[in-house]
Design brief:
Length: 214
């Protein structure tokens, strides 16, 4: 708690005064262009990774960067997606997984203690779809298998996202684009899923091929 209080003091005395005009504009409205859905993992800090400012990203965080399939759960994630698209009119929705993901580890080892976490176990059922997107030759090396499942989970959750009615409509009308990303904690690298190649490629390479939004 002391560290938080020290940080807040620094924010109030240094960071906030430097951005006072920006916060004044944000005090009554927001207009982010991106909904960023990622894991609750403390090591994943979107504003640090992307060097964004307050008001740039509409964030949704949960264990495993999960997106329930359309119609299955009227919960916080689905409500956040609906609000971001219908009210805030975001142009991009990003599902971002990350290396060393605990949710993926749990999917690889169901006996990892989830019996003590019934709510977590129920939530992580949404990750089971990732097995459908694993490579034909599943790696035998535990570390490589873990990374493969994290990638597969990004693809699975991306497809869940597309099944949300509000997202499907936005894509059909060319109003939004959806993206699947992978963040490597060790290297700081971001990769994006390229459906045309069914593989993850460097983010800048992926972004260069994106069409403009109407």
């Amino acid at each position: 708690m002391d560290r938080l209080l020290t940080g807040y003091k620094k924010f109030r005395t240094e960071a906030f005064p430097d951005r006072k005009d920006h916060f004044r504009l944000l005090s009554t409205t927001q207009a982010p262009e991106v909904l960023f859905i990622t894991c609750a993992d403390s090591r994943v800090v979107p504003d640090l990774i992307l060097q964004t400012e307050p008001g740039d990203l509409f964030l949704c965080r949960n264990a495993g960067n999960v997106v329930p399939p359309g119609g299955q759960l009227a919960g916080g994630v689905s409500a956040t997606i609906e609000y971001a698209i219908e009210v805030l009119k975001v142009k991009h929705v990003i599902v971002c997984g990350h290396s060393d993901c605990g949710a993926a580890k749990a999917a690889l080892d169901p006996s990892c203690g989830l019996e003590k976490l019934p709510l977590t176990a129920q939530w992580l059922h949404f990750i089971e779809a990732a097995w459908n997107y694993m490579p034909a030759n599943i790696p035998e090396d535990p570390s490589e298998r873990h990374t493969a499942l994290i990638h597969a989970n990004v693809i699975a959750q991306l497809n869940h996202l597309k099944s949300q009615p509000v997202v499907a409509s936005g894509i059909e009308h060319g109003a939004i684009q959806v993206h699947g990303w992978y963040y490597d904690i060790l290297t700081g690298d971001l990769e994006a899923y390229d459906p045309s190649r069914n593989s993850f490629v460097p983010l800048d390479e992926y972004a260069a091929g994106l069409p403009a939004i109407r």
